[in-house]
Amino acid sequence: MNQIINPVEKVDAAFLYIIGISLVLLTLITITMIWFVVKYRRSRNPVPADIRGNWKLEVIWTAIPTAIALSMFWVGWSSYAGLRNVPANALEIETIAQMYSWIFRYPDGKESDNEIVVPRGHPIRLNVTSDDVIHGLFIPAFRIKVDAVPGVHTYAWFYPEKNGKFSVQCTEFCGIGHADMTAELRVVSEEDYNLWLKSDEK
Ligand code: CUA
To answer: Do residues 148 and 95 touch, judged by C-beta distance below 8 A?
Structure first.
């Protein structure tokens, strides 16, 4: 099997990169501003200098921020591409939102309510739609957030590498039961997944 890059890593890297740059800029700008306020205060500089045009400075303060903004775009874009490019061998699960629950339909016809069970180590593709109003599928542990829209078929994918239980939530205000529209994602071993598929458990 060829190497699958978990999009979680790319999304987190983009987040850290952008917040890192923001912190560096915040610090540098604040320090420079305070330093200038003190150095060029009125008591020491009663007559302001009238400076016009400095092409070198202008090129620098245009080129550097442009390069920084483009690098943030690139990091963000590659994490987005990671979230949208599904590996070819992904297990497909139909994901249907309705007021106020989630239905998951597996390739063999098994259906579960408010619980997704997936085998560890397989990329999982969720084909998402809605039966009534707009809902939002949110699985924070896998950095997934897509709207479920009636009549529209969209998707999300994730790569569960460890066993565990993760929360699934609706993130569009879809009506009075919105807050209860939660589900649980359970990542289990392949054997347990196959047992679960054959069981009557919903
Ligand atoms: Cu479904 Cu909120």
So the answer is: yes
171 Cα nearest atom in ligand 1: 2
pLDDT digits (tens, 9 = 90+) for 86-128: 999 999 999 999 999 999 999 988 999 999 999 999 999 999 9
Q: How far is the CA of 176 from the centre of ligand 1 (A)?
A: 9
Q: pLDDT tens, 18-60?
A: 999 999 999 999 999 999 999 999 898 888 888 888 999 999 9
Q: Which residue has the tokens 């999304």?
A: 11
> Does 137 sit in the ligand 1 pocket, CB within 6 Å?
no
Domains of the chain (ranges; CATH) run 7-84 (1.10.287.90), 91-198 (2.60.40.420)
- pTM for this predicted structure: 0.85
User: % helix / strand / coil in the chain, to the nearest 5?
Assistant: 40, 30, 35
Other beta carbons less than 10 A from residue 103's beta carbon: 15
Residue 160's SS3 state is coil
Place of tokens 């990671």: 82
Pair 201, 121: CB distance under 8 Å: no
**Which helix (H) or strand (E) segment is 147 a member of?**
strand 144-148
